[in-house]
Automatic annotation (TrEMBL):
Pfam families reported in the protein's UniProt record: XPG_I
Protein name in the entry: PIN domain-like protein
Top-level lineage group: Eukaryota
A GO molecular-function annotation: 5'-flap endonuclease activity
Amino acid sequence: WHRAHTQTGQNPALRTFLFRLARLAQYPLQLIFCYDGNQRPGVKRGHTVSLNEHWMVKPTQRILDAFNTEWIVAAGEAEAQLALMNRAGIIDTVMTDDSDIFVFGAQTVLRKSVFFFHVHVLLTLSSCLSSTFLSDTIKIYTVSTIQEHVDHSLTGDAFVTIAICCGGDYDKNGLPGCGRETALGLVRCMDNNMLRSAMHSGNQDLSLQQWRNIAEYHLASDPTGKMGRSHPALARSLSDSFPNPGIINLYAHPAVTPLTELPKLRPPTPPNLARLAALIQQLLGWDSKKLLSTFRTTVWPVVILHELLEDLANNSPMSNEVCGPCHSI
């Protein structure tokens, strides 16, 4: 990464952020960025997570403010917050490459690596979404499509079961030897609400033991045929310490800001050009010539888009005020 950015000038990471933000903003999307909060787990993917604020947080928030693009800070992990908002219908989709997004309950996800630190994009889409917007192919995943093409058993709690068994962000190992097909077999055989319910049980140990007994029964002999085959060695390997209730809680009850406490979404507005120009000169050290030439290709299209959308919102698309007399072609 450093070799690729040696010629990009002052603050190459912020420069890249600016260009990618401008590219996203050139489409009829309402963007909201979400940052990880200080209640995020201290260990992720086997590494200790620094709870100190990333150096890019403050300058990128200033850039977003100048773009009049909204941002929020999650209580814990950004993915969990966005999944909650997506599930509640506040937003249409989440753009992230984090594999646990469906475990947190997201319904629609766009996959494309465009940002490289803990900030994720929440998108409110227009009625038409092209799978090739941004001039690049993106992948659109929905829970309903996954259920249709993979398995109808894949509800929200089923994703928790798979993450616990196969390993995820909070426990890389999961149940050693349990692959995705085996975990999917367990999902077909078991009540996937059992793990979440165990966290509310008056006797958590007993509830988890009941889950282990049922899992061991299906793994050992596959009595329903839904496993595909038996896994006796895996059944014998189930220990009293699996699954870890702390890991279950991180998935089933992540730290999130309640929906009622989130700021109300503002109508989209164009960038504040004077504020953005002054900020970019400060952060990136661009002179006036560089600033104008860059704005011409990256920022003006955003302004034009907002003006067009404002005209469409204030006038009927079929009226002469917007498009003039209509003609057949």
